[in-house]
Amino acid sequence: MVNIAVMGYGTVGSGVVEVMNTNHDKIASSAAQQIKVKYILDVRDFSASPYKELFIKDFEIIENDPDIKIVVETIGGTGIAQEFTRRCLLAGKSVVTSNKELVANHGHELITLAKERNLNYLFEASVGGGIPILRPISQCLAANEINEIYGILNGTTNYILTRMIKNGVSMEEALAEAKYKGYAEKDPKDDIEGYDTCRKICILSDLSFRRHIYPSQVPTKGISQVEARDVSLLAASGDRIKLVARAVRTGESSVAVYVEPHVVLKDNLLANVEDVFNCIMVRGNAIGDTMFYGKGAGKLPTASAVVADVIDASKHINARKYVDWSAGGPDAVTDSALLENRMYIRAAISPERVRELFGCIKVIDVNDTQTAFMTEEVLDLYELREKIGDTRVFALYRVLD
Ligand code: HSE
Q1: pTM as predicted
Q2: Cβ(130) to ligand 1 under 6 A?
Q3: What is the mean pLDDT of the chain?
Q4: For the residues 284-305, what does the mean pLDDT come to?
Q5: Other C-beta atoms within 10 Å of 246: how many?
Q6: Average pLDDT of 4-11?
Q7: Among 100, 103, 196, which is best to mutate for testing ligand 1, by the most ligand atoms less than 8 A from CB?
Q8: Domain 135-295, CATH
Q9: Helices 100-116 and 80-90: crossing angle, nearest 10°?
Q10: Does CATH place domain 2-130+299-329 in 3.20.20.140?
Q11: Is domain 340-400 in CATH 3.30.70, yes or no?
Q12: Residue 90 in this model has a pLDDT that exceeds 80
């Protein structure tokens, strides 16, 4: 029997306790032993909960209980969550988490701490909610040099964009729905402004390219500047605007990585990834392209990934799991503006002038003052800015074909 503690009884933490309870027998059979939640740490009052006798408010009870071998951290953020994670590892307990902010910012040091003590720090749920993605990258694709990853990594913004396109709902209304459904972050600005996506592409890059990439190194734009006008102009031909994160290998130990809305052409599989679903494309030098798809947010999908890590940790109480990468540094990242793409542009320019500048283009829309078009040629952002000069640009997106 393995006793565990759950720290933080929010959306994911309560989902973990629910999955542990509902799937108790299946989990015991997968782990080849009973796994029991002994404590739930949360400062709030849960005296009406069916698990009320498990609640504690004092972290030291967990820290000092030698019976607790695995701790689930679902507090979130980098404050107290970081302190408690460190203290659990120092006290000889493996830690399992869905906390992408903590892993993206401090993953290297926490993994190192775990490694020094022959413990595990596991975080499958930190990227893609319930989608198995970190283990496949670390284990199943281990024979590959990974050259590129891109995808939709945030359920909330994908839900919002889907509701805007399909149902004409406003961004504010759609966000309120995403909050109600338990998809959004505590501060939904983290979703809308792309910070959550940024943390996730950092973690995917850490594992794939094996150096720590910090969120502060990743140029990040969210969906707050996306205009309904471009969404509907593109929707007419089945193309979509999606918040995409991308990381491309640019050297032996360097990567160009960024987060921004893209125009996804209708034939790209990502165009049909809707609602709260996420989809991640991983390109390996032996396997080629692989895609991972599923629910990227929500209580039970995320809890399912956390509990799978608990099972894994319970089977490796005195053994290290695969997860590892080396320290980061300024040279880990190269300039993502140099990555080339076709571009979608809406600008105060005539179609004739656009053709002079870019040659072959696909015109999307023309009115008295503006032209919306896609370039046929691929350009980097510097080449594009040079061509477009001081023309007033209202919308500019990279195109994923
Ligand atoms: N707010 C996140 C999302 C939760 O919408 O994807 C899952 O990480």
Answers
A1: 0.96
A2: no
A3: 96
A4: 97
A5: 23
A6: 97
A7: 196
A8: 3.30.360.10
A9: 20
A10: no
A11: yes
A12: yes
